[in-house]
Write a structure and sequence with these properties.
Blueprint (H helix, E strand, L loop, with lengths): L1 E4 L11 E5 L2 E5 L8 H4 L15 E3 L5 H4 L2 H6 L6 E4 H28 L13 H8 L2 E4 L11 E7 L7 E7 L2 E5 L23 E5 L12 H14 L3 E5 L5 H14 L8 E4 L1 H12 L6 H8 L10 E4 L2 H9 L4 E5 L9 H8 L6 E5 L7 H6 L4 E4 L2 E4 L3 E5 L8 H8 L8 E5 L3 H12 L5 E2 L6 E3 L2
Parallel strand pairs: 3-4, 4-5, 5-6, 9-10, 10-19, 11-14, 11-15, 12-13, 12-14, 15-18, 19-20
Antiparallel strand pairs: 1-2, 1-21, 2-3, 7-8, 8-9, 16-17
Bound molecules: zinc ion.
Length: about 450
């Protein structure tokens, strides 16, 4: 049995692990490399495997750094089924065509501006490629046994990271392999906490995004409530740039809680992003994924993520209605770091007025508009114009989709004894180092694999 690390080795992106045994093979996750150009270039390097030879693809969750390479695999000859949870399948239907659209737009832009060494510049995959590979997705429920390859018994367990996210429990003969995927936080709203492992395993692939960091323990709901009240008093508009999937629904859930408790005035809330609208509708459907608290609300007859004054803006026409609605109001729009999308129109409209407030949530990459806003830039460039930042700006701490160091260690406590070998993946070098040290201090046998490395598991 062999495992090759084709992504998320020494970095947090491009998750792809090729597992072979007795001439059969599966790819665990099929992520696209995102972020700096040096990493994105890896998407164009040929894989050391022929996609046509794969017997299965097994996904942990729908994030593009775990699924974005699927359309390319399909285009290059993939014939195998792609296993995932039902939630992942439905999210992929939203995310993969959108990733393809971005690829096509970028190629068109490069061709127009003649900014490519390649003529013509091509997208990594097209919308047609994305649509075609979606037909290969096979949905599973959590805890339902399935056999991706004859003699391989697999289960999905809840990873509590995003809707449908899972860690994989795989038994091949006498060996048990666990792939953590991305682990979520404990006590996050709506979805269940990550399900702990139990017993022992031979091979563990463990994510280490926050291997060296802890999340702050602020009361996010209270912090959000304070800002909403202030903006309402000033009769301003609260603008929240947020990722379309997960973050938008989390914020909406907190707003609903605040409203239910009469902690904030009943302001209209707009979700202005077609992707966020579709993701919100999925969240409304997947009751079986809810945590106990959310299930209890449903049992009391509450409609989660659907309060009265909520406007889901999918069309451009609906998006324009935001501007026509008098303040005070709340606008949640993507992208989360204000690098593109409809949020740019709202920032352009609302930043120049001190009555308004921009609330940034979650991590902001250096150089993005979201990052510029929290570092205090007095004007930012939008659609070629400099826009003065007169509105209030603050960051709401404590939002993250990933378990922090303590939460990862706690999840690992679920095993009755240390796995024979633990491979640390999905982390920057400092995080991987810290995570490795912490586990070694507990007597674990830890390996930090390199990109392209193959290890024997027999
Ligand atoms: Zn993820």
């Amino acid at each position: 049995m062999e495992l090759q690390f084709l992504g998320a080795a020494g970095t947090v992106t491009g998750s792809k692990f090729h597992l072979t045994h007795n001439g059969r093979s599966a790819l665990i996750d099929a992520g696209m490399f995102q972020g700096p150009r040096a990493l994105r270039k890896k998407n164009w390097e040929p894989l050391p495997i022929d996609p046509a030879d794969l017997d299965a693809v097994i996904l942990t969750h729908a994030h593009i750094d775990h699924t974005g390479y699927l359309p390319r695999l399909g285009r290059d000859g993939l014939k195998a089924p792609v296993h995932c949870t039902w939630g992942t399948r439905d999210l992929c239907k939203i995310l993969l065509p959108d990733a393809a659209r971005l690829q096509e737009e970028e190629a068109n832009f490069r061709n127009r501006k003649k900014r490519s060494k390649h003529s013509p510049a091509l997208p990594l995959f097209s919308i047609v490629d994305a649509e075609q590979v979606l037909s290969r997705l096979v949905g599973h429920r959590y805890h339902e046994a399935f056999e991706p390859i004859e003699g391989w018994q697999a289960y999905y367990r809840d990873a509590g990271h995003i809707l449908g996210s899972a860690w994989i429990d795989l038994k091949i003969g006498e060996k048990r392999l666990v792939f953590s995927g991305d682990l979520g936080r404990t006590k996050a709203p709506i979805l269940k906490d990550p399900e702990p492992p139990e017993g022992r395993c031979d091979v563990l692939l463990l994510e280490s995004t926050y291997g060296n960091r802890e999340h702050p323990h602020n009361d996010k709901r209270e912090d959000l409530g304070e800002i909403v009240k202030e903006v309402a008093k000033r009769k301003g508009t609260l603008v929240i740039p947020a990722f379309a999937v997960e973050r938008t629904q989390e914020i909406l859930y907190l707003l609903e809680e605040l409203l239910r408790n009469d902690d904030i005035p009943k302001l209209p809330v707009f979700i202005d992003s077609p992707m966020a609208v579709r993701a919100t509708r999925l969240f409304r459907e997947y009751h079986e994924y809810y945590d106990e608290e959310t299930k209890a609300l449903v049992a009391q007859g509450e409609r989660v993520l659907s309060y009265k004054n909520l406007h889901l803006c999918e069309s451009v026409q609906e998006s324009k209605s935001v501007l026509k609605t008098p303040a005070p109001k709340i606008v949640i729009s993507a992208s989360g770091m204000a690098t593109g999308g409809r949020i740019l129109h709202h920032l352009k409209n609302y930043l120049p007025d001190p009555k308004n407030h921009v609330l940034v949530v979650g991590y902001q990459s250096v150089g993005t508009r979201g990052w510029r806003l929290i570092t205090g830039d007095e004007e930012i460039k939008i659609f070629g114009d400099w826009v003065p930042v007169k509105a209030g700006v603050s960051k709401l701490e404590g939002f993250s989709g990933h378990a922090d160091h303590t939460e990862i260690m706690k999840w690992c406590d679920g095993f009755s004894e240390p796995p024979t070998t633990t491979y640390l993946v999905h982390g920057e070098p400092d995080s991987l180092q810290a995570q490795a040290e912490a586990l070694r201090n507990r007597g674990w046998n830890v390996v930090v694999p390199e990109y392209g490395q193959t290890v024997g598991l027999a």
